[in-house]
Design brief:
The structure is a homopentamer. Chain A is built from nine helices and eight strands. Chain A has about 260 residues and is an alpha/beta fold. In chain A, strands 1-2-3-4-5-6-7-8 form an eight-stranded mixed barrel, surrounded by five helices. In chain A, a hairpin with a 6-residue loop joins strand 7 and strand 8. Chain A is globular, with a radius of gyration of 18 Å. At the B-C interface, helix 3 and helix 4 of B face helix 6, helix 7, helix 8 and helix 9 of C.
Chain lengths: ~260, ~260, ~260, ~260, ~260
């Protein structure tokens, strides 16, 4: 049989994607209807207040105000803003239609430790439809010992997304006691696995972190890889396959992703 | 881009709030239809019998009688009384319509310890509608190790509130083994986080405690803050954003909150 | 404001109760339609076989036969018999209509210990309706570490009772590791708390035990009370408020409660 | 009042039973429509493959073939065969109508230990109706620390049986850490309690084991009983009351029960 | 009674199977509509990316591309490809109808250990219908301490398969702390038990591994068997009864099964 060359990663494109009409409408808005409008998706996330507490805003106090963030998304030409139902309901009124919304469905505080982390949903895909969102965000704690709870809740979200034509952005975050024992959440081993989980479980977009170098605790064959940063990124993008990849940037409040050429 | 000054906290107002018509009707009754009628909400809570047991009434024996409490709410010009379904059903008959009801939906005894506290719902938003309540109260144990149970139940309550136009008052109470290890439930760190959780998760009103000074076990940057009481209060109010803040008073049986100017 | 005297406990009466028409019909049958017919409710309970095993019947062997118990209820002029769905279905045929039934909905064996006791429901309020019962019984293990499971199931029962006009009798039993550490299930502290839980959570009738003297492990202010038996009983009745109180008698197979004067 | 003599156990009879028409039709088929047809129920059980693994068939290899078992049930004049949904669907075709089916609804492997045993349902009462079964079988692990899970699932089964007129056979098996600490699953204490649980919880037929002599770890008053085998059997039959008792025989693959005289 | 000879294992055939019309249509497609078309089912599985992570593709990098796998299934004349909902939705477009799909419904990562393994469902039988699949795959961790969770979810899947005429392929995988203590997941004891579980619980096809020799930790009578590889295979096929058996091959990415003669 013929084999395609693996030398060059083929970035997924919306045009060739198999997503439904409803997802396609909404993904088009994210990739081409706002922000750079060239297929690049730049998301302004605002879930730190829940995930890390207000302490995250101490270095830059205005950031605590969601209205400031909406203005920032608009003036900074972001493609979309990602936040939870509380912030959307209370702060979106003046920005409706002007800034696409990615409604984050689940989340938790970081007060208790993450050894058996689960991220419970506090909103639903129907909440996202009601609020006019263009996608939902769902955190999947890849490898947590309680992944059965996490995945069970995810199944419902994925099916609702399919039924309602809502794109699903997976925050694929390795987390928990087991991944810590295997080198931590940031390694290529962890991020590469997370990318594949997103593809296997049917996400449309996956949010990852740029993988760090491997450590001694990482399982083989990753431990021996010793690839450079560029090669590591190429690897996780390849593992994500036809799922669009969104990387968290080095800065706290912006994320950048370069998509395929315009559809 | 332009940044609004953060020097002065802008209190939320009902007029500018994004809440639905049904919530607006009921919030108007709480803020302007009874009690001070000037936008200030003063709530008489009566859930101590469940949360702490009858011992809480020993210093002032008449307080054990819910009828006494209803009379107190009426004669004391409170904006509303907050209690559970058992007390509402058995004692509200003579006060229906005269004293707005905030139906507390969940609760627990303090017999078992709070290391993994969960506050289970023993009533629903539909119970509140049936009883003519103007809001529901829901205790969220912020940071408890079993927050997935707590938040899962909360999601249903929040969605029913949205569907039925019922304002949602969150008792945002840091609780559990983890918060104890980080300085306890009363610190600015804990209360500030709780305020933000209420905003992120879509409460309309949040009940907090006035934050105490920080201790050595509190995480940075809070540990180094050393702010005075007034600054601490300003901080948590800012973190609550457009969620109305209700502080527990120093006395056992009254709570005071000063709202925005009349809508 | 005026305060009513607390010197005399006002017993609740059916006439002044706020319960719905359906509950009122059935409570009338319990208080005035059988047994003493003067507002006093005397219940013959038969759940020992499940809760304690057949060993409970060794001292008086005929008691193991539910038919004997039904005859005893009839000939002994009891107001009602309380038992589970298995016994009701197999033994009630000849007594239908002649002896009011309180269908016990949940229960468990005492084989495993009670440190984290939960009493699971093996029947529903609709079973009670189908069998022509005049009330349901629900055991609430007050203070058990797993109270969230217990209360979650209770919520459904309470709502079905409201919907179907079925009186709810709460077996309010302090139980579990925590109450043992605080002096045990029989103390005034425990029974007083249990009485209040029944009132807060919406029971119509509460079954309690006559409180024993306090021990050193009981929390303050109970530890210092040192009241006599009569004062202890008065206290728990006061804590139950408008919930009718039913005390377990000293004998194994009868329970006596004196209600308000006839409605 | 008059007391009936307890000297002679009155065996329950189908004629005098209170079961519904649907249950009565199906019980008649079990007691009088096949097998001895004289009120005696002899059941051929085939759930060892799931409960104990194929090792159970090593002493008699043909027994591993369910078709062999169906032929055995037919040729051996059994009243019914008891097995799970997988075996019924794949092997019953040639025996439909000729051998009554008792569909076993739950089960588990014996690979993990039984300290906190739960027997999960892998089929439903509606499966039994669909397959033309005349009864369902449900294992209840009496006294297991996780009895709340077991009983919660049982409630649904019992209610479906009532709704659909399907007789319910309870495999009442004491199991788990607690019963082991109290002398084990085979003692009179354990079997007597199990018999009563079946009656309290509404089984129509209960499957028990002939009780073994008591040991020193058995609770009083059983420890001091020292009854002979016949007296022990009489005792558990009495505790089962109007529930038909089915004893597991000494042989691995047959069970014998002698019922009341023909209805 | 007559006994059939056990000397020769009778392979199940589709013609004589009791499955419903819908299952029969789809099984015909798997056995005779593609691949060898002679009753032999050869499946190309692609769930390693989820179960083991991308590391599984390191030895043969093109295998990480699901499109490559679909082409391989087509060009390699496989009967079907087995993968999850994410891969099916994103990669099947060009292969629809040309390669039968077995939709794998549950799965998990191998980051956390398997001591109490559960494989949560992230898709449903209705997803399989929607995608035009000819079967669903479900992993059952035979003997895991949390088998009640696993079996509870399986029940729903099995019933949906029956309702929708969808063949059910069980990945019957012994797993968890208990099977490790009894010799591990690959032994004849483990595989033989797994085969029987599939038959008892109603699978149509079971995927097993060729059993390895027994070890000292395996329970009797297996420990003393010491059979050769061929005898071990014959034994597990016999235990599977009328469930079609599919063995994982020695190679990573192919599986071979020889079925009955064409129906």
């Amino acid at each position: 049989m013929k084999r395609k060359s693996q030398a060059k990663i083929q970035r997924p494109s919306l045009a060739s994607s198999s997503v439904s009409h409803g997802k396609r409408v909404r993904l088009w808005r994210l990739f081409h209807g706002s922000g750079p409008r060239n297929g690049t998706l730049i998301v302004l996330p605002l879930d730190q207040g829940l995930e890390h507490g207000p302490a995250d805003f101490f270095p830059h106090p205005p950031a605590i105000d969601p209205d400031y963030q909406f203005r920032l998304a608009l003036e900074g030409n972001y493609s979309a803003i990602a936040l939870g139902v509380g912030l959307a309901e209370k702060y979106m009124k003046d920005y409706c239609g002007r800034v696409p919304l990615i409604l984050k469905l689940n989340g938790k505080t970081n007060i208790a430790d993450d050894a058996e982390a689960v991220s419970p949903a506090y909103a639903s895909v129907e909440d996202a439809v009601r609020l006019g969102a263009d996608a939902v965000g769902y955190t999947m704690y890849v490898g947590t010992p309680r992944q059965d709870v996490e995945i069970g809740e995810y199944r419902k979200v994925r099916q609702d997304c399919e039924r309602l034509g809502m794109p699903l952005v997976m925050w694929a975050y390795p987390r928990g006691r087991a991944i810590e024992a295997k080198g931590g959440k940031g390694t290529l081993y962890a991020q590469d696995y997370a990318a594949r989980v997103a593809e296997e479980m049917g996400a449309d977009i996956v949010k990852l972190h740029e993988p760090t170098p491997e450590t001694d605790r990482v399982p083989e064959p990753y431990r021996s890889l010793r690839e450079d940063a560029r090669a590591r990124v190429r690897r996780v993008v390849r593992s994500a396959g036809r799922v669009f990849v969104l990387f968290s940037g080095g800065e706290k409040d912006d994320s950048t992703w370069t998509a395929a050429p315009p559809a």
